[in-house]
Batch of 3 targets.
Target 1
Amino acid sequence: MDEAQSTNGKKYLYKKDISIYKKNSKMNLEEIRNLIEERVLPLIDRDYVFLDLPYHPNVGDTLIACAAESLLKKSSYHCLYRCSEYTFDNRKIPSNALIILMAEATLGIFGRTIQSLGIN
């Protein structure tokens, strides 16, 4: 699996690690779906919170978030809390929850709050 591992042992998966094209060939939608499921679902190892949902007029972002939630529902774990940057309430994040961020830019918004809570 193409995942980066930080010095504290946490697992991270970045968009660039999910290569959807094989060299000199095209993958059909089913192959792409299977590849993403193979790479992402094993990382969901407990109940989770889903932060930075796009509650704004960009329909494309909303569709991506819907697809991500559909994928996450295939795991055996449950979403305990979901929010946008505008509805975020750190009191609703259990300390043992996996934190899933919708966008990389989210780290700047939520990162300090998450660190201050001592959440892993």
Target 2
Amino acid sequence: MSLSQDIPLSYAEETVSRWSKHDTSWMLSLFGTAVGAGILFLPINIGAGGFWSLVIMALLAGPMTFLAHRGLARFVLSSSKPNANFTDVVEKSYKAKVWIVSPTTLMATLNTVRAVLKDARMREEAGRIQKEVMTLLEDVGRLDKRIENLDKHFTQTTKDIRDIQITTGKITKRGERIEEIQLGEDSPAEELAAPVDRIE
């Protein structure tokens, strides 16, 4: 199959492809992209590195250029539609979730994919972290209520201790009064009268 775009829409298996003006322009554009820049700098390269270094570089660059353009041609011809072009093939691959990369863009594409996957993982982990933080806040609220209850108990205990100190103070004063009373036969009876203060 040639690179011709003259294939009719009603494609039949017996259609014979023939070389067209479009095929010629396609071939010349491939040649121009492959070696156009090299032709511009050919005299400079010969003067700088010598004739043989240029021949060696051409022998090395020739197969690489041929393989790259053969891959591009195969890529364009890989469509199931006979009249498809480069855009159709790229759209079809994106719909199939196939990423098309070259050796130069492979690392950039892999880094992008890694960043996207890492971002998705972080979003997933962020949901879990948020859930744990909400649980932690509930625990802190529960702890705050328990500290408040404990504070109430401490306040009540302080009040109870103060009441006990008041009562022991009164008992001590009464004991001192009893000590001051002299028990004897000549003691008047009013000194033994019951005290006016009552113990609470």
Target 3
Amino acid sequence: MLRWHWSKMPWQWRSLWGFRAKLPIGSDLQTIFHIFLFFDTSAILLSMGLIVAFSKIHSVGCYTDTPIARGTYIIEYTGPRLTVEEADERYAEQEDTYLFGLSDGKQVIDGYGTAAFINHSCDPNCETTEDDEGRVWVFALRDIAAGEELTYDYGLYDGADDDPSTCVCGARNCRGTLYSPAEVERRQAERDSAQG
């Protein structure tokens, strides 16, 4: 968990909704995100040159305001760790979640930071990786231009049998779903065996 030493933090004046605010450089600005939900705003400048703004893909997305080189680790996917059972119970009645499944298959990250706003694409410019400590990082698959929306392939692997998790990324190679190719094949095989 990041702990900010406010007395040593460099500050920068930023304009938000016509108001000037003195905010810490490099902070995740979680409180600003809550203001974002309360007010109808078009964009919020966040840490590391990232901007959360309305997206053509889905709701809001995460954009970069500076070029990012291929292979750059951009941001960590942060949030509390929950067991799969805790997450299922907590979000039983909620359609949209920001859960990121970890490789152990037992825990998920309940995303609350900037990375939670990175949308899915079947032709992504980013990818995720989990390090030895179980931390999840988003890194650039290719050079990314300033102003471009960051995306990665969600590769969903679970969900209700009747949930298509429809993809609306608009990529030429869009597979029509957020499920991973392996999950799509598994589901098709189940349907085929059920039909006889």
